[in-house]
Design brief:
The complex is a heterodimer of chains A (about 550) and B (about 325). Chain A has about 550 residues and is of the alpha+beta class. Chain A contains 15 helices and 21 strands. Classes of the chains: A alpha+beta (about 550), B mainly alpha (about 325). Chains A and B meet through strand 9, helix 5, helix 11, helix 12 and strand 18 of A and helix 2, helix 4, helix 6 and helix 11 of B.
């Protein structure tokens, strides 16, 4: 019925400027809020009612540290707590800790290598066992366990020595400062040591199928292939949930998912959301609220700079000038995405809004190509030094909107004397070696470049991250620039957000200038829920839209 | 009889072994792998992917992986799902009930209706009813089931609001009535195709029997028409149907791949599609083995069933 415009991003808001002083202030406010506000322990409002969340992929991995997909994290957020969480504005808020560690409060040493964590008193696991510093130590050490199939080790690898000082305090040393570690910790859910006895294979522990956390919801049951049920945790240390039961229902087909949302069989249409072609109709549904939620995914035309044609910067510039971006967004994507010039989400503190805006100007593109020596050959396709201006574009086969995009680009570029062939591949083929080992020329790819709110993109732009050249990362563009390499290292080891901002602005400017990928737009997900459901808040810094179910309530 | 049994069991084992080899090779030779879907996870690097592939044993030579799998399989360990880490047999077991409920109901409907339509069509050959049944069967067979499913959802759930748009039960209700209401649409939609198949076979079989000598004899000695049809024609026409039922056993268990997705039915068919999507090799292999074994058993049971029903057939 009604469309809720999202709060516009306010660059002057202190909440979006996570300065160190700001951190401290907000931490104190949050700590005070926990002490004074809310319900006193034992007198909590009784949770009641039920909400059904519909999703198009099935959550199956409940140990948050095993390799998993994004939908699993909706369950993780309900059952577990990180030490501190990342809020929609990019700031950190304490969860299991009394205060978010900063240099000012002594939680992190000035050089960023020594950390101290203080836990809240009286937090218990869902089975009644008290949470202790040993659990935190266990969680962090598990990431480095040789046999454990940890999804990622970045950051955790740098921890050298963890000391448990008391039940509620621990310290550790890191081999070097690593600024993104704050963001990584905000995604690191603490799991109970006692659920993994001696000799239990952590990959196959019973815990992985019936998780025990400290979070606002407790595990209730799972009907595989159908639904997962969670119940409110009455002993939660925070305010706790007001809806007693959450049913996460798996509906694989997007059309059926939307139908069940219309008929009211599901209250919330979460992951994959409503497809763009249903957006206009959905906003008119009675009793439903439909919202556009920005997500961190940037739709790119990724280029392989090792390709002899695409290695020429003039070609990349001409290609970008030949993209009628606004028409693409309006005609193919129903006007929903936001045009962008960078990999950095526009909601980020580090987003550089001074980047040159793309214009659609094929004539200028042709002029650049002429000047660079690309002249039309006998068949109308430009040639330089015997090399035809021709390449192959690939993406996931069966993605109809992207296929239309390809055809549109093919036609636009052909008018400029550029030949693009289309060769799409099934997803398992597209995103394996073809992508990771840079076997493509051009790929239509939606990429989330950031880990949470942290601006570090070493894995995407550093020379050492080019897999095709023996690196280990995801620099599939084969982009290499000594200055950017330097900046990436500097940025990752600089703690203060103010000091990091110009570093990442320069990287964004270089990337915009060099165009290792043509940035099309930042995606917006169409999410819907029953009008009576309140507290459903998007958070661009987490991977899943149903991350704050404890704040939901029925009007 | 004993020699027949031993022979068939040995044949079955060899067949299943060959199926497992081909299946394993095909799944593993397809490009991509169980980890390719994680490449686009934010922050995922080639180093992480390589480490996890090693931890999962995916970097070993294929024959080694196969022998490892086969050895475990023979001791009853079907491996663990990559997707949810639980044993494959548990995974299959958890989806079996939903599929048996749906396919059992729809097959029962299909056999009952199909037999009736087939016999009536044969008895009243070239009548309006026969033509309509024939045309109807052709339509039902040539239009994909999921299309019927979507149309049914549109009419009965969205427009009329009579029936739920999928799911096996309402969360929190789960009474018998609730299951039945959810069962109506998917089982009838699925039955549609099977009624078509079954009625065509039944019609042909009935026509065959109708012109046999013993039917003429029965008619000549003045038996009532209903008795000729029920005791002589239908009973004999059903014998080839036993073979058909045996061949359909694996499809009953295999589930209705797409229909289960349309109706959000948590059965084996959807498990198979999901497992394919995630390249969950152990579960795919498990389901493949499961249906191979059922095919062998189904054929075996059909042969035995036919021998029991028809004393003229001797096994050996």
């Amino acid at each position: 019925m009604k469309k809720t415009p999202l709060k516009p991003f306010d660059p002057k808001s202190p909440m979006t400027h996570p300065s160190r002083r700001g951190f401290l202030g907000m931490t104190m406010i949050a700590a005070a809020g926990l002490g004074l506000g809310g319900f006193p322990r034992g007198a909590k409002a009784q949770a009641s009612g039920q909400v059904i969340v519909g999703i198009s992929q099935e959550p199956t991995v409940f140990n948050p540290h095993l390799l998993h997909i994004e939908v699993d994290e909706g369950i993780h957020w309900a059952i577990f707590d990180p030490l501190f969480s990342v809020e929609p504005d990019g700031t950190f808020a304490p969860r299991l800790v009394t205060e978010v560690p900063t240099v000012e409060n002594g939680g992190v040493s000035a050089d960023g290598t020594e950390w101290r964590i203080r836990l809240k008193e009286g937090v218990t696991w869902h089975d009644g066992t008290p949470l202790t510093a040993e659990d935190v130590k266990f969680t962090l050490e598990l990431q480095k366990d040789e046999n454990f199939r940890a999804a990622r080790r970045t950051g955790h690898e740098l921890i050298e020595e963890i000391t448990v000082v008391s039940d509620t305090e621990l310290t550790w040393k890191m081999s070097s400062a690593f600024a993104p570690y704050m963001a990584i910790l905000s995604w690191t859910f603490i799991i109970p040591k006692h659920a993994f006895g001696e000799g239990v294979d952590p990959n196959e522990a019973p815990f992985n199928q019936s998780p025990i956390g400290t979070g606002p919801y407790k595990w209730d049951s799972r009907a595989p292939g159908d639904n997962i049920q969670l119940v409110a945790n009455p002993d939660y240390y925070g305010d706790g949930a007001s809806i007693e039961r959450v049913v996460v229902k798996y509906v694989p087909d997007l059309t059926v998912l939307y139908t069940q949302f219309r008929t009211g069989e599901i209250d919330v249409i979460a992951l994959q959301g409503i497809s763009p072609d249903h957006y206009a109709e959905a906003t008119a549904l009675p009793g439903k609220e439909v919202v556009l939620v920005p997500v961190g995914t940037v739709e790119t035309l990724s280029l392989n700079l090792a390709n002899p044609v695409l290695a020429d910067k003039a070609v990349r510039q001409a290609l970008y000038l030949g993209v009628d971006k606004q028409t693409v967004i309006d005609a193919l994507y129903y006007g929903l995405p936001t045009a962008t010039e960078t990999y950095m989400p526009q909601q980020s503190f580090y987003y550089d809004d001074t980047l040159p805006t793309h214009v659609y100007d094929p004539e200028e593109g042709k002029a650049i190509l002429e000047a660079a020596g690309w002249v039309p050959g006998s068949d109308g396709i430009r040639v330089k030094d015997g090399q035809r201006l021709s390449f192959v574009c690939s993406t996931t086969a069966g993605n109809h909107v992207r296929e239309q995009l390809q055809q549109f680009l093919q036609q636009s570029w052909l008018d400029m004397g550029i030949e693009m062939e289309i060769a799409n591949l099934p997803p398992a083929v597209m995103w394996s070696d073809h992508w990771m080992q840079s076997q493509f020329d051009m790929a239509v790819a939606g990429i989330i470049f950031l880990t949470g709110p942290d601006p570090d993109t070493t894995d995407y732009f550093h020379t050492n991250a080019i897999n095709a050249q023996g690196g280990a990362g995801q620099n599939t563009f084969q982009f290499s620039d000594p200055r950017v390499d330097e900046l990436l290292i500097e940025g990752a080891t600089t703690v203060s957000p103010e000091a990091r901002k110009p570093i990442y602005a320069e990287i964004q400017q270089t990337i915009r200038e060099e165009l290792p990928f043509l940035p099309l737009f930042q995606r917006n997900e169409v999410r819907g829920h029953a009008e009576a459901l309140q507290g459903y808040e998007p958070n661009i810094n987490v991977r899943i839209t149903f991350w704050n179910m404890q704040d939901w309530s029925w009007a | 009889m004993l020699r027949f049994l031993v022979n068939r069991i040995l044949q079955g084992c060899v067949l299943i072994l060959i199926v497992s080899m081909i299946g394993f090779a095909v799944i593993n030779l397809a490009p991509g792998g169980p980890l390719s879907q994680y490449a686009m996870t934010p922050g995922m690097s080639q180093a992480d992917l390589d480490r996890i592939a090693h931890q999962m044993g995916l970097d070993r030579p294929l024959p080694v992986q196969y022998l490892d799998w086969l050895g475990n399989m023979l001791t009853g360990d079907w491996g663990r799902s990559y997707r949810d880490q639980s044993p494959v047999l548990d995974v299959v077991w958890r989806h079996l009930g939903a599929t048996l409920l749906l396919m059992g109901t729809s097959t029962a409907i299909a056999i009952a209706l199909g037999t009736m339509v087939g016999v009536l069509g044969a008895l009243k050959r070239y009548s309006i009813f026969d033509y309509m049944a024939t045309v109807g069967a052709m339509i039902a067979l040539s239009i994909p089931t999921f299309w019927f499913g979507l149309v049914a959802i549109f009419i009965f759930s969205l427009e009329l609001g009579w029936l739920p748009a999928g799911s096996m039960y309402t969360v929190g209700d789960q009474s018998l009535g609730d299951y039945l209401i959810h069962l109506i649409m998917p089982s009838l939609v699925l039955a549609l195709v099977n009624v078509a198949i079954w009625s065509r076979y039944m019609r042909t079989a009935t026509l065959d029997v109708m012109h046999q000598d013993f039917v003429r004899t029965a008619r000549a000695k003045g038996l009532p028409r209903w008795r000729i049809v029920s005791a002589h024609i239908v009973r004999n026409a059903l014998i080839p149907m036993i073979t058909l039922a045996g061949l359909q056993l694996p499809t009953i268990i295999g589930g209705a791949l797409v229909t289960e997705t349309v109706f959000t039915w948590p059965g084996l068919g959807r498990l198979f599609i999901d497992s394919l999507g995630y390249n969950d090799y152990p579960v795919i292999m498990g389901l493949l083995m499961f249906s191979a074994i059922l095919t062998v058993i189904g054929n075996f049971l059909a042969d035995i069933g036919v021998a029991f029903a028809d004393p003229r057939i001797r096994l050996g």
